[in-house]
Amino acid sequence: MKRTRSSFLATVTAASALLIALGGAQAEELRLLTWGGYAPDDVVAMFEEETGIDVQVTLSNNEEMIAKLRATDGGGFDLAQPSQDRIAGAQEEYGIYKPMDVSKINGDLFIASMLEGTKKNTAYDGEVYGVPHVWGTSGLVVDTKKAPEVKDYVDLCSDAVAGKVSYRLKRPTLIGFAFSMGMDPFAAYGDTAAYQTMMEKVGEKLIECKPNVKAYWTGGDALINLLRSGEVVAAMAWDTGGWKLNEENPDITFVAPASGALGWIDTFVLPAKTQNEEAAYKWINFVMQPEIAAKITASAGNFTASKGADAFAEEALKTRFQGSFPQEAIDNIKWYPPVPAGLEDIEGKILDRVQAS
Amino acid sequence: MSRRLGFYLLLAPLVVWLGALLIIPHIELLLTSLQVKVKPRVYEFGFGNYAAFFTEPLYWNTFARTALMSIAATALTLIVGFPISYYIAKLARGRSRAILFVLCLLPFWVSELVRTFGWMILLRETGVVSNTLQWLGLSSGPIEFLYNDAAIMVGLVYTSMLFMVVPLVTTLESLDDSYIEAGYDLGGNGFAVMREIVIPHAMPGIVTGCIVVFMLSLGNYLTPILLGGKDSLWFTEQIYAQFITRFNWEQGSAFGFLLLVLSSLIVWAGLKLTGQTLGQTVGRG
């Protein structure tokens, strides 16, 4: 008994000594809330070597980022990366972000049009909240041998692919189907009543389409498994998922839908209670350098807003991108405008109805 | 004096535990659930979130479905678990008994996620069961076993089996074998002995096991999400959706509170119907 106690005490002492040592060594840290692949280990190591700042990476998605920041009123992280359409609305509702001092960011590193676009889209009350980082699209991932006729979102409801289709029950699906049915949901963002009618039509279509669906996917990996095994031949998904599968099986690839792929831009924003703003700006300026941005493109599978990074990007990825996006498909990308507060309530009700039907 | 101090010191961790992790969060939950959103950043006190549960059929349908499926899962777990427990407690001897018990425990050495993925590998269209059936010639094409209510049921029973077996084995062990022998000596057949002696004695274990399994099933999130199909709604999924994807914490809190109240009511009703009380059963079991 005595022995166990003394060894227990020894362990505790050793552990606390270790903790103190660690605490002392960690001079500065940057707590980054981001997506998988946006802060690869080698980039984090390079940044630490150059600046001495230790980067703590937490992986998340748009909804969880907002929920996490809301829970702490914008604390717990020093830099976050939500999509640009989820900034102004969330700021209006919960006040979880801090305006950005754009002068501390090296604007020359960015593709000018994207930087301006994001600044405009993330503005709230005259302040800029975000700058762009990684962009990509969502559209269709199709097994072109087994489902060659799937060219647009509504084709997922055709009899040819009955029971072999998957999509998410989330807002991109509603928006994609609306475009595919010949409507323009983004134009109706400002008109709640028109948006409501539009979403009701989309809801009816999705209810009609339900027998075609094998399962509503919730995680990217689950969907990739469904497509890889051939259980699903056409799905609504992100471009990277399609390109990843294309590496293994040339038949499967990302297809930009006829009515337009949906374009998103993930940004950098400062949480309201960021404790290391300086480190956050350093990180932004660091990762936007073309060579570093190319490394992030390689790990995330999507291109960045960094000017000149294309020159360093992998050839295979560029080829896949060009295969999925001929020039007219790029021009046809529908970029998400900021979501006004309140629209998500309408969408939520419609999605509930679809699931319950 | 020092004895009293000792009592309070021993009590302190429990009080801190209950207070910090149970009571305070629930008060917070209750207060949040009574806030009704009027417009961004403006909230009003009211019962609107609770009213939404009763006026929107989807919500209470989902709850009813979840409760019924959890009750079914509990019954199935009992039916499967009782013979196993009886065998472990009464028939197995020595080493084989320890081995059987460990076998029941073994699946719990891996996380719930891994266990559920295991079932997905077995049941999916290109999975082990489907391929075996095709190989045996029993089926001409791939069969999808996943994404339906039966798959959820299998997952739930599997995940909660241990929580039924442990209390049952404990109570059955305390039953003296001579009672069973006396039952047979007095001319009872196997069925009568089971009904008159074994089950009444095991009742505390049965009730404890059922309450634990029911609560675990009702509050389960992973299994219904991963194994369930496009029609499989689970109430915890609704709570998650309200909190995370809808940013509607007020509604989510109301659902959380309703889940607590309604599940307690169901347990209370179950106890009343079977003529048991919590003190008699859980206390002893």
What does this structure look like?
- The complex is a heterodimer of chains A (357) and B (285).
- In chain A, 45% of the residues lie in helices and 15% in strands.
- With 357 residues, chain A is α/β, with parallel strands linked by helices.
- Chain A folds into two domains: 27-135 and 263-331, Periplasmic binding protein-like II (D-Maltodextrin-Binding Protein, domain 2); 138-261 and 340-356, D-Maltodextrin-Binding Protein, domain 2.
- In chain A, strands 4, 5, 6, 7, 8, 9, 10 and 11 form an eight-stranded mixed sheet that branches. Chain A has a three-stranded parallel sheet with strand order 2-1-3.
- Chain A is built from 14 helices and eleven strands.
- In chain A, helix 7 packs parallel to helix 14 (343-356).
- Chain B is mostly helical and 285 residues long.
- Chain B has one domain (65-281): MetI-like (MetI-like fold, Orthogonal Bundle).
- Chain B is 76% helix and 3% strand.
- In chain B, strand 1 and strand 2 (42-45) form a beta hairpin.
- The chains are: A alpha/beta (357), B mainly alpha (285).
- The A-B interface holds A 63-64, 66-67, 70, 90, 92-95, 170, 210, 213-216, 218, 229-231, 341-342, 344-345, 348, 352-353, 355-356 and B 39-41, 56-58, 61-62, 124-126, 144, 146-147, 225, 229-230, 233, 241, 243-249.
Give me a quick take on this structure.
The complex is a heterodimer of chains A (357) and B (285). Chain A has 357 residues and is an alpha/beta fold. Chain A has 14 helices and eleven strands.
Defining key terms:
heterodimer, A: 357 residues, D-Maltodextrin-Binding Protein, domain 2, 2 domains, eight-stranded mixed sheet, three-stranded parallel sheet, 14 helices, 45% helix, disordered N terminus, B: 285 residues, mainly alpha, MetI-like fold, two-stranded antiparallel ribbon, globular
